[in-house]
């Protein structure tokens, strides 16, 4: 199994197979529009701008499981991210990232890269770095700022 074995529905309602990202380093993030970490969209977009031409992708997955911090519709979320943070990286429809209804991708990610004390995602803006071949390389806590991932991203891009 790898990340490439999964698919998800984009924020615009289209099915996207993650196998389309084979050969690219991917950063997968569970996002929220009304969270204290929401300003990380700025840093994520900067990473995307800096590395996208080097086979790097960021995939954003809105989630409303933590403090009801993303209650809007998928359309509202997409508009918010574009208007307030200039997000151009792919965003997907709102998903659960833990529990009985967790999206299978996040069940896989958390089984491959456990967090501190538990494998379950504990808050918005948990990040997973994925290699070009779909292997989960690392998991980062919500507090980890996007700019602090540059070294790991560059290493993954050059291996």
TrEMBL record:
UniProt-recorded Gene Ontology molecular function terms: peroxidase activity
Keyword Hydrolase (UniProt): no
Keyword annotations from UniProtKB, A to Z: Oxidoreductase, Peroxidase
Keyword match Nucleus: no
UniProt xrefs under PROSITE patterns: GLUTATHIONE_PEROXID_1, GLUTATHIONE_PEROXID_2, GLUTATHIONE_PEROXID_3, THIOREDOXIN_2
Thioredoxin domain: residues covered: 1-158
InterPro entries per UniProt: Glutathione_peroxidase, GPX_AS, GPX_CS, Thioredoxin-like_sf, Thioredoxin_domain
SUPFAM superfamilies named in the record: Thioredoxin-like
Pfam family, one: GSHPx
Family: Belongs to the glutathione peroxidase family.
PANTHER family: GLUTATHIONE PEROXIDASE
Protein name: Glutathione peroxidase
